[in-house]
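Risk mitigation, structural track. In case the binding assays with zinc ion fail to produce interpretable data, a predicted complex structure has been prepared as a fallback.
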Amino acid sequence: MSASASDCLFCRIVAGEIPATIVHSDDRTVAFRDINPQAPTHVLVVPREHHPNAAALAAEAPELLVEVMRAGAAVAEREGVAASGYRLLFNTGADAGQTVFHAHLHVIGGERLGGMAQVG
Ligand code: 5GP
Ligand code: ZN
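Fallback model:
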């Protein structure tokens, strides 16, 4: 998969072409607040590199998937939800409601979360 895609929303956020509230940034990942939060804390962690979904990311760059998970845990710590608990979620494909086809980890928390199939 290409390193970036000019028509990809999250590639454009990573490139700084579209504004977002960045909460974490390192050499391989960027995290920013979801524009339509589903809970008090709702952050998206993306690899800087373009991969269309988590399964492709796992197949194409497994060590980068680990970096995304590590960044998600760091975000949860910084947001103050690590002790109370949080959900890490990858929507993959139509039935999951995936709308942006650049792999992104949802970090959701800050309140008691509802049934797993209702979040996202
Ligand atoms: P998906 O449903 O693909 O797993 O999640 C995509 C997420 O991206 C949604 O939760 C949606 O609210 C969020 N989103 C869509 N467009 C934007 C945007 O332009 N900026 C930000 N920060 N989040 C976005
Ligand atoms: Zn992309």
